[in-house]
User: What shape does this take?
Amino acid sequence: MASVNKVILLGNCGRDPEIRYLPSGQAIASLSIATSTRRKDKNTGESVEDTQWHRVTFYDRLAEIVGEYVKKGTPLYVEGRLKYGKYTDQAGVEKYTTDIIVSELQLLGGREGRGEPPSEGGSAPRRAPVAAAAPPAASRQAPAQRPASGFDDMDDDIPF
Assistant: This one.
């Protein structure tokens, strides 16, 4: 029987990543991602936000990318798998962990959130430059006639 262990998270980085290297040179990055849902409280009718924190681990090249471009507050999309663990703390109490081992990463948001200098104009949309005034009607040429193939009114953009 086939099985699936897949997690998809879309959230914000909760702390700066911790990067470490194994003796073999393999990079490992750890961070937490916050995801939130909103609901209305039944008693008060107010909107209540529920935030969940997820422990996330990256390996190899993804860990290096995270270390270079991700910081606290960066919006992230990650795909990975769940990994459960158990350890004993200093007081002798057994504790359980749930980690997400990331296999896919997409950095979301603008360049400002990824450790790069802000683009000109910040996050506001850029405007196209104003076109020069059109030449007088006498100097304009008439558009060339196209053969009537029945496809003249169709867009050149193919949706697939």
